[in-house]
């Protein structure tokens, strides 16, 4: 199995954290192709930054799927930039680490809390939880309130704070499970699990393991329905890779539906 894991921000140090946790999480025999967004921002905190990142992720998916040989895609930023729309582009499963972490948390407890790296990011995260249908099971979102020294050093700089936020989510908010949100926290769950009295979910690990599971199910592709490829129509200004990826997706849809509509 070959999985494409995409960092939707431009920080290579975050990509290194993603790669490390993805490699530790992947099953034997899973090959990982880890890519960083070609344009965008240092780290994603807002809906608009997510919008910018979605286009960058689409480009990476297009480049890799045009070349072939990818069995699944993991969008490795909490908030899942471009999801679920990216499912319309690829003919392989596309899994965001938010939906993966939420599903993993829901399997382990009734209510969960999210621990985030900034206050500004929490509104977008709350939107994502609602969009995935888990709003009724969200106990809280707690976040770091201090300025970040650097996105690649959040774990080093704020480990005690993050652990304390998780503990308060359990004791004060009633969380049965805690999600450490965001690629900058990749791998931290392994290190602090003994310090938090409920299951702790890592988005990268959840994304890789659930992507492997969905690929293994071999359920088929979205060639019809609401996640089918966008309808054929005139377009302009897209990159050659994105044009080719859309052509391939639309051709598969037409072959099944019998018409471009």
In a nutshell, what does this entry contain?
The protein has 261 residues and is of the alpha/beta class. It has helices at residues 12-25, 47-67, 97-106, 122-131, 154-173, 188-192, 203-217, 240-257; strands at residues 2-7, 31-36, 72-75, 94-96, 112-116, 138-143, 177-180, 200-202.
Index terms:
four-stranded parallel β-sheet, 14% strand, 8 strands, Hydantoin_racemase-like, alpha/beta
How many β-strands, per DSSP? 8
Q: Based on helices, strands and strand pairing, what is the structural class?
A: alpha/beta
What's the main sheet like?
A: 4 strands, parallel
Number of helices: 8
Q: End-to-end span in angstroms?
A: 33 Å
Encode the helix/strand succession as letters.
EHEHEEHEHEHEHEHH
Neighbour order of strands in the largest sheet: 2-1-3-4
Radius of gyration: 18 Å
Low-confidence stretches: none
Give the DSSP E fraction (strand runs of 2 or more residues).
5-15%
How would you sum up this structure, described in words?
This protein is globular. 43% of the residues lie in helices and 14% in strands. The longest helix has 21 residues. It has 261 residues and is of the alpha/beta class. InterPro entries: Asp/Glu/hydantoin_racemase (IPR015942), Hydantoin_racemase-like (IPR052186), Iso_Racemase_Enz_sf (IPR053714). Belongs to the HyuE racemase family.
């Amino acid at each position: 199995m070959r999985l494409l894991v995409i960092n939707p921000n431009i920080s290579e140090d975050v990509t290194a954290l993603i790669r490390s946790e993805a490699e530790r999480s992947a099953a034997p025999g899973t090959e990982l192709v880890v890519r960083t967004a070609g344009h965008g921002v240092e780290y994603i905190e807002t809906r608009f930054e997510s919008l910018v990142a979605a286009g960058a992720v689409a480009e990476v998916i297009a480049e890799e799927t045009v070349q072939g040989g990818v069995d699944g895609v993991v969008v490795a930023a909490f908030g899942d930039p471009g999801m679920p729309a990216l499912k319309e582009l690829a003919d392989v499963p596309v899994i965001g680490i938010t939906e993966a972490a939420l599903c993993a948390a829901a399997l382990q407890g009734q209510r969960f809390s999210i621990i985030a790296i900034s206050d500004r990011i929490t509104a977008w995260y709350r939107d994502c939880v609602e969009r995935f249908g888990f709003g009724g099971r969200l106990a809280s979102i707690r976040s770091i309130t201090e300025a970040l020294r650097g996105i690649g050093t959040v774990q080093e700089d704020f480990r005690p704070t993050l652990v304390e936020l998780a503990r308060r989510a359990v004791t004060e908010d009633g969380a049965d499970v805690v999600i450490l949100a965001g690629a900058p926290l990749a791998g931290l769950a392994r290190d602090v699990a003994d310090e938090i009295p409920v299951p702790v979910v890592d988005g990268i690990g959840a994304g890789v393991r659930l992507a492997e599971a969905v690929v293994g199910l071999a359920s088929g592709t979205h060639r019809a329905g609401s996640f089918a490829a966008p309808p054929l129509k005139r377009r302009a200004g897209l990159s050659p890779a994105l044009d080719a990826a859309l052509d391939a997706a639309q051709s598969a849809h037409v072959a099944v539906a019998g018409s471009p509509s």
